[in-house]
């Protein structure tokens, strides 16, 4: 078996804000930007890892999602309980400073956790939780 | 897909509550109180407390204290600080309130917790350890053995 993680999905409610955060603040490259009926799917990822991407997708697009479910997803995103991703970097402090200077919403300063890692946390513009671990 | 102005307003309100909750997560060690949180979010403290509880199932004060106790558990496990120092380090200003709330959430007083070896989360992935060791307000500790009174 030789399986890699190719794409993972994070919901977005404002494509331009998502693009500004993932491309300009986090420094990811944009690999694809697909529009359909006013909605956009934006594929981003770190430039030196072409095999792993995040797709920033409109959560309401699937016609199998009912209006009630759509409403629940929108509310969970707004209150910050819907989606999470954990990233990692060797330079946690530098990354933290760059995100903070880029006006990202800070949830946690770089902190030593009792379970053995050092990490910090942010929100992306859609309310997704972005945790960043330090690679040691 | 259509959303009414009322829906939009509701989502903006929820995002505001999220920022209050994130601020508690970030600044729990500061002398935060609900009045200051409410003032900065342009709400009365009663209104903030009601809305926050409706969204997250507990009041902002309870969430703040739970966050402080969670961090105190981590510092107590390290074993190099006294209970009093930890109480102030996590933003509590009363040792009595801290100890009472700690005991309610964790099941044992902080002084006893500090002496217990920590093996419960060994081998667990960090994100799981974080979830399972987090004190939960509305699932307060139960006595593990019958209490003889």
Structure description:
The complex is a heterodimer of chains A (136) and B (149). Chain A contains three helices and eight strands. In chain A, 25% of the residues lie in helices and 38% in strands. Chain A has helices at residues 15-25, 67-79, 92-101; strands at residues 7-11, 29-36, 39-45, 53-57, 84-89, 105-112, 118-123, 129-134. The longest helix of chain A is centred in the middle third of the chain and has 13 residues, at 67-79. In chain A, strand 3 (39-45) and strand 4 (53-57) form a beta hairpin. With 136 residues, chain A is an alpha/beta fold. Chain B is an all-alpha fold and 149 residues long. Chain B has helices at residues 5-27, 34-40, 45-56, 60-78, 83-89, 95-106, 110-115, 126-133. The longest helix of chain B has 23 residues, at 5-27. The N and C termini of chain B lie far apart (61 Å). Chains A and B meet through helix 2 and strand 6 of A and helix 1, helix 4 and helix 8 of B.
Produce a short descriptive summary.
The complex is a heterodimer of chains A (136) and B (149). Chain A is an alpha/beta fold and 136 residues long. Chain A has helices at 15-25, 67-79, 92-101, and strands spanning 7-11, 29-36, 39-45, 53-57, 84-89, 105-112, 118-123, 129-134.
């Amino acid at each position: 078996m030789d399986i890699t993680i190719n794409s993972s999905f994070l919901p977005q409610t404002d494509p331009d804000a998502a693009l500004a955060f993932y491309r300009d603040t986090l420094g990811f490259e944009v690999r694809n930007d697909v529009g359909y009926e006013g909605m956009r799917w934006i594929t981003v990822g770190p430039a030196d890892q072409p095999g792993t991407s995040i797709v920033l997708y409109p959560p309401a697009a699937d016609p199998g999602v009912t209006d009630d479910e759509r409403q629940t997803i929108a509310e969970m995103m707004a209150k910050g309980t819907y989606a999470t991703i954990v990233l990692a970097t060797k330079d946690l402090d530098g990354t933290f400073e760059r995100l903070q200077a880029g006006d990202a919403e800070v949830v946690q300063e770089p902190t030593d956790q009792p379970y053995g890692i050092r990490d910090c946390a942010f929100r992306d513009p859609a309310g997704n939780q972005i945790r960043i671990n330090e690679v040691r | 897909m259509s959303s009414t102005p009322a829906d939009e307003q509701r989502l903006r309100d929820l995002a505001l509550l999220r920022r209050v909750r994130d601020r508690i997560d970030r600044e729990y060690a500061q002398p935060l109180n609900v009045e200051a949180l409410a003032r900065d979010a342009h709400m009365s403290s009663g209104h903030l407390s009601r809305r926050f509880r409706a969204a997250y199932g507990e009041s902002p004060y309870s969430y703040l204290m739970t966050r402080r106790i969670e961090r105190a558990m981590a510092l107590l496990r390290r074993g190099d600080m006294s209970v009093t120092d930890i109480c102030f380090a996590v933003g509590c200003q009363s040792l009595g309130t801290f100890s009472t709330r700690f005991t309610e959430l964790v099941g044992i007083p902080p002084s006893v917790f500090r002496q217990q070896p920590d093996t419960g989360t060994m081998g667990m992935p960090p994100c799981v350890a974080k979830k399972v060791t987090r004190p939960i307000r509305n699932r307060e500790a139960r006595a593990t053995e019958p209490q003889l009174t």
